[in-house]
Design goal:
By secondary structure, this protein is mainly alpha-helical. Helix content is 57%, strand content 0%.
Length: 176
């Protein structure tokens, strides 16, 4: 329902919660993966807009404060303030990806991991929506041949899709 209302970040939070409670939930995994792919494609922003954040912050309780320290930055200065704790290094040329781009790549890779495990190992082996979302991941990754292969598998699944779900079949009898 949140997706229909264009509240994709709130929908993402709800999908995350559903996946935490039931890791093999096909609809939640596909919904979460589609939101993650929308983030990767820059259809939706990385973070929710400021208005949505203000409404969320007013409804969520503030984190507990540490006695004697009023600001979290003071904790950071206290923990890492001495020179022997600091790590000095220069990033290499391979690691020159900007943090927003890295976050988008992480979103795409997470969607791939969720969908891959659902379609190949989980209960979604015959769930064409999951395979279609996986084809979208392959397309965004530039793997054209894998995209074609997965889309043809979607066509096969839809052509052979049963009238009733396989869960309707019981122990030696048909259950209505």
């Amino acid at each position: 329902m949140l997706l229909a209302q264009s509240l994709k970040h709130e929908a993402r939070a709800q999908f995350e919660q559903a996946v935490m409670h039931f890791p093999d939930h096909p609809e939640a995994i596909v919904g979460l993966s589609n939101v993650l792919l929308d983030i990767y494609c820059k259809i939706i922003p990385l973070e929710p807009e400021l208005g949505a954040l203000q409404s969320e912050s007013s409804s969520t309780p503030s984190p507990p404060s540490v006695p004697g320290i009023s600001d979290q930055r003071e904790i950071k200065r206290y923990d890492y303030g001495q020179d022997h704790y600091k790590i000095h290094h220069t990033p290499s040329a391979e690691n020159s990806i900007s943090p927003p781009e890295l976050t988008r790549l992480t979103a795409r890779d997470r969607a791939f991991g969720l969908l891959s495990s659902l379609t190949k190992l989980g209960v979604g082996w015959d769930y064409s929506e999951a395979w279609y979302a996986l084809a979208r991941v392959y397309e965004e990754s530039g793997q054209v041949e894998k995209t074609k292969e997965v889309l043809w598998w979607c066509v096969e699944l839809e052509d052979t899709h049963p009238v009733r779900n396989w869960k309707s079949v019981g122990l030696g009898s048909f259950v209505l």
